[in-house]
Amino acid sequence: MTGWSAKDIPDQNGRTAVVTGANSGIGYVTARELARRGARVVLACRDTTRGKAAEQLMRDQVPGADLRLATLDLADLSSVRAFVKELPEDRVDLLVNNAGVMALPHRRTVDGFEMQFGTNHLGHFALTGLLLPRLRAAGPGARVVTVSSGLHLFGTVDPRDVQMDHRYRRWIAYGRSKSANLLFTHELSRRLTAEGGSVLAVAAHPGYASTNLQTAGARMEGRAWMERGAELLNRLLAQSAEDGALPSLYAATAAGVRQDDFIGPRLQLWRGAPARSVRAWWTRDDRASAGLWAVSERLTGVTYP
């Protein structure tokens, strides 16, 4: 894996990719580089105005890119269902569950879920389940890549209080939602392996990458000093969104990626070329992953075929 870069992405002609949160940050870079290598890319974005601007910029950077913009709000399960229903493609080769929120003040989704758990995990759980028949239809090479974080080490999901209703702490809630991403990938991998199918479920994380995630919570609360502090840390310590997208792109396209792999920067949890990453022991716990799966099916109403 040494020195792997976007130039090493294999030819993607004839493949269809869905990338959530493709209008900014590592989602934008992921979508652009897949399009550069010939994939048809569906830009799944919550904000249509920002999505249109991102699509135009991507077309300027990749002339001839095969792109389609579609509205998807992961914090609204009706939007997730509408997105899948209106998706014209009968096969999806690649689903990149990239969109997410970080360390927000306590908020609820349209369906009443804690915002970070609801957006980062439940929205993608529902989306993946509803798209699974189209991923299976794509045949060998289909992959689901779910973007987690090194901050999953902050804690795992508490089965007694999956949404932190009793004592909300924004960073712990974020870490738990990212552990949920890994538990989801683990359980999906187990189920795909058991059925003998060809769909691969893997996870990735960008390390410390400079995106708008770090400043969104502070901006939402009007904490200018906190927002400026996050911007300063991004400038001093973070790698670029270009580099932060490499683990996602590697997980999505590289040969040798295995079921339930977790790909991140080589310098663990921070920066560098893509490599298999360390992960907390609890993200490979079969009982915990099965329990979260059952809760997720109940909350979303999505049962995997």
Polypeptide structure, described:
The protein has an eight-stranded mixed sheet, with helices on both faces. It contains ten helices and eight strands. The longest helix has 26 residues, at 170-195. The two termini are 35 Å apart. The chain has a single domain, classed as NAD(P)-binding Rossmann-like Domain (Rossmann fold, 3-Layer(aba) Sandwich), CATH 3.40.50.720. Helix 5 (170-195) links the parallel strand 5 and strand 6. The model is unreliable at 214-219 and 229-234 (pLDDT under 50). With 305 residues, it is an alpha/beta fold. Belongs to the short-chain dehydrogenases/reductases (SDR) family. GO terms for molecular function: oxidoreductase activity. Pfam families: adh_short. This is SDR family NAD(P)-dependent oxidoreductase.
Which terms would index this structure?
305 residues, alpha/beta, Rossmann fold, eight-stranded mixed sheet
What is this structure's SSE topology?
Layout: E1 16-20, H1 25-36, E2 40-45, H2 48-61, E3 66-71, H3 77-86, E4 94-97, H4 115-137, E5 143-147, H5 170-195, E6 200-204, H6 213-220, H7 224-237, H8 241-244, H9 246-253, E7 262-267, E8 271-276, H10 286-300
Parallel strand pairs: 1-2, 1-4, 2-3, 4-5, 5-6, 6-7
Antiparallel strand pairs: 7-8
